[in-house]
Amino acid sequence: MRASLNVRAFLAAALAAALVVQPALACTGIMLKTTDGSLVHGRTVEFGLTIESSIAVVPRGQAFIGKTPTGDGLKYNAKYGAVGAIAFTDIKLLDGMNETGLAVGAFYFPTFAKYTPVTPDNQSKGLSPADFPNWILTQFASVDEVRKAVQAGEAIITPTVLDKWGTEAPPFHYVVYDKTGASIVIEPIEGRLVMHDNPLGVMTNSPSFDWHMTNLRNYISLSPNNASPVKIDGETFQPLGQGSGMIGLPGDFTPPSRFVRAAIFTATATPSKTAEAGVDQVFHILNNFDIPVGASRDVSDGVVHNDYTMLTTARDPQSLRYYYKSYEDQTIRMVDLKQLDLNAKGIKMVSTKGQQPIADMTSQVK
Q1: Domains of the chain, earliest start first
Q2: Which of 91, 94, 169, 244 is disulfide-compatible with 159, CB 3.0–4.6 A?
């Protein structure tokens, strides 16, 4: 009994230490195809610390310089205009879509992300973890173009510490979509960029993408159809209610469980008729991954870090519309790239902060 208690104490201490290393975090991404041949995709944004976010529009020709631990890295100008979300004061798109319909999302990848060390030979190709999605959005029009550029080593991701992200380089991996429905995942593994095809369009966090795809094989018996009654020794056992085909679906907030739910929900969703209706469906599905404040948290040095859904975004590459809503304001807002002057000078921004309006319908029922 004493040995068993010691083992429990050791495991509890190890778990507590692991939680101190990384604050709680969770992000989930999905893609849907509609019956008219359109596709839409979206994601949630969660973190254990409050992220100050804004929606930014990057015009064509905008100049950027990549950050590395030893100074300036890759210098490039935006080939395409783009819209998306930035964090804090670093005006680099972490999640967004460009004028060709190419979309990128950065997702946390703790304990697995290992970036390329900077050397005098590769510094000119260097990008910070936040620069990388911005570079993709402003330079490329298709998943195939991105794949070829990464394979050719046109850029590297360096272990760059970023303001307000902590004392270490934020660990990211990335999902990329284009308007054909092609999708890839790019992960920094042991100092090199590893790519995986992403046929389901689903994305979460650690571990690596190939592990998540293998793990789905544990859940192939799940079904949207209710279980049939079973008769045992003359006694008939009926399902207790709707949803019996999904018994065994993991419901916690860990990345493996969210990946399974996202894959199942998108695979079983009744296809919408249009992209506009598909955007609504994206938000409805992602509502299942909404984390309320307090449900997922850890304590580090006496400080409670609550992991919650700060932002939810959706992208329509057909209409080039970027949608978002925040934890404080569930009103869905939209930026239409087609209505903007993408040759304008300078980056335009709007804060995601807001206050949820409540419609008083009392007069309607008097």
Answers
A1: 22-343 (3.60.60.10)
A2: 169
Residue 285 CB neighbour total at 10 angstroms: 18
Kindly give the interhelix angle for 275-287 and 255-268, rounded to the nearest 10 degrees. Answer: 140
User: In percent, how much of the chain has pLDDT > 70?
Assistant: 93
Strands 126-127 and 156-157, sheet pairing:
parallel
- Judged by DSSP in three states, 294 sits in coil
pLDDT in tens, 194-234: 999 999 999 999 999 999 999 999 999 999 999 999 999 99
pTM of the model: 0.91
If you write DSSP's letter for every residue of 217-266 in order, what string do you get? GGGTT--SSPPPPEEETTEEE--SSTTGGGTT---SSSHHHHHHHHHHHH
For residue 174 the two structure tokens come to 């990335």
* φ, ψ dihedrals at 73, nearest 5°: -115, -130
Q: Does the N-terminal peptide bond of residue 120 adopt cis geometry, omega within 30 degrees of 0? A: no
The 3-state DSSP class for residue 349 equals strand
For β-strands 103-108 and 172-177, DSSP reports them as antiparallel
